[in-house]
Design goal:
Helices cover 32% and strands 21% of the residues. The chain has 399 residues and is of the alpha/beta class. The chain folds into three domains: 123 residues, NAD(P)-binding Rossmann-like Domain (Rossmann fold, 3-Layer(aba) Sandwich), CATH 3.40.50; 182 residues, 3-Layer(aba) Sandwich (Rossmann fold); 81 residues, Alpha-Beta Plaits (2-Layer Sandwich).
């Protein structure tokens, strides 16, 4: 099998695939258009990060593609529905870089509160500006976290440990950690927070979540941090609130439009503003996080193509390892239709095949069955399943 890894995915991922006999091609940047279509010829496994967009058109051009690995948290760069319809599994790394993002946010809170961006710039210019003007401790201040998932909760724990009070808002029902307090609305959080940090996902409903109205509701001289998705924030509204002095500072790691490759020009209305930290989408870009992501996602892809396992797939029903393990395994992806499992087992019984392990899961319009047997399935059984109207694909493995 051939693997294509884009966007500087950690070398550990390529090593994992090569150890198992895969042919691996790596490229430093993202691809698009005809270049991406051409690169996917003959590729069974594709690894991307956040800058490569996988549309239904791309998937149609990738005739051999079995699975996509998003070596990051987000998956909004992939048309998950189109991938599922074509039986292409998609995996991501929902946990591996949470610590790195949280540490970046904590560091930004300190830098913004002490206005260190201005201090270091003046020192580089040869100006000795030893003044406490505008610099504050964050102890006892209130951090408002919008989005209380894996990153938001870990940020909550760390922030409280270093002296911040924590409030949070999430549309889902989330358990508060430590002394954190759930706020009844986003407006209530904004009115109380000295620092607002955004940690929402890339679903379309979050686009434009923070605009002029939300910035106006924040406390005077509060600070804003976005390390989630660029489309969440109206950059022009943020600029106006920095220039007017309503906000004391901001840190932004993600942008609505980002350069595609290393060294490309970056443009934003936030450039050149005092006490504004701009970083190039590096929230999860630590050696530790990238190594962990490389290991985690490559293992998920290998388990899928070698064992048929789909735990933590974001678009196919999740079916894990069977116990006891079978000598022969059949993986069957199908449209979710009543009676499929009974039909499979009737075919096996008529053929005299003994089932030693079986697991079924359904999600949306799809169902997925792993069946372990003590012998290879007869060809007439396999042919009958392949011909069935509900079949998406059927694959066999010898374990």
């Amino acid at each position: 099998m051939k693997v294509l890894l884009l966007e500087n995915i950690h070398p550990g991922a390529a090593e994992a695939f090569r150890r198992d006999g895969f042919e691996v091609e790596t490229r430093p940047g993202s691809l698009g258009g005809d270049e991406l279509h051409d690169a996917l010829a003959g590729v069974q496994l594709l690894g991307i990060r956040s800058n490569t967009t996988i549309t239904a058109e791309v998937l149609d051009a990738a005739k051999d593609l079995l699975a996509v690995g998003c070596f990051c948290i987000g998956t909004n760069q992939v048309d998950l529905t189109a991938a599922a319809e074509r039986g292409i599994a998609v995996f991501n790394a929902p946990y591996s870089n949470t610590r790195s993002v949280v540490e970046l946010v904590i560091g930004e809170i300190v830098v913004l509160a002490r206005r260190l961006t201005e201090k270091t710039q003046r020192m580089h210019e040869g100006v000795w500006d030893k003044s406490a003007k505008g610099a504050h401790e964050f102890r006892g201040r209130t951090l408002g976290i919008v989005g209380y998932g894996n990153i938001g909760t870990q940020l909550s724990n760390m922030a409280e440990a270093i002296g911040l009070q924590v409030v949070f808002y999430d549309t889902a029902d989330r358990l508060a950690h430590g002394n954190a307090r759930r706020m009844p609305s986003l407006d209530a959080l904004l009115a109380e927070s000295d620092v607002v940090s955004i940690h929402v996902d890339g679903r379309p409903g979050n686009a434009g979540l923070f605009g002029a109205e939300q910035f106006a509701r924040m406390k005077p001289r509060s600070m804003f941090i976005n390390a989630s998705r660029g489309m969440v924030t109206d950059e022009h509204a943020l600029r106006e609130n920095i220039l007017s002095g309503h906000l004391a500072g901001a840190a932004v790691d993600v942008f609505p439009v980002e350069p595609k490759a290393q060294g490309d020009e970056f443009d934003s209305p936030l450039r050149g503003l005092d006490n504004v930290i701009l970083t190039p989408h590096i929230g999860g870009s630590t050696q530790e996080a990238q190594e962990g992501i490389g290991t985690f996602v490559s293992r998920k892809l290998l388990d899928f193509v070698q064992l048929g396992a789909t735990p933590l797939s974001v678009n196919l029903p999740n079916v894990g390892a069977l116990n006891p393990p079978g000598v022969f395994r059949t993986a069957y992806l199908h449209t979710s239709t009543p009676g499929v499992l009974a039909d499979i087992n009737r075919l096996l019984a008529d053929a005299g095949v003994n089932v030693v392990g079986q697991s079924l899961s359904t999600g949306g319009d799809l169902g997925y069955v792993l069946t372990d047997t003590d012998q290879v399935l007869p060809e007439d059984v396999l042919s009958a399943l392949r011909r069935a109207a509900q079949t998406v694909w059927l694959r066999s493995y010898r374990l």
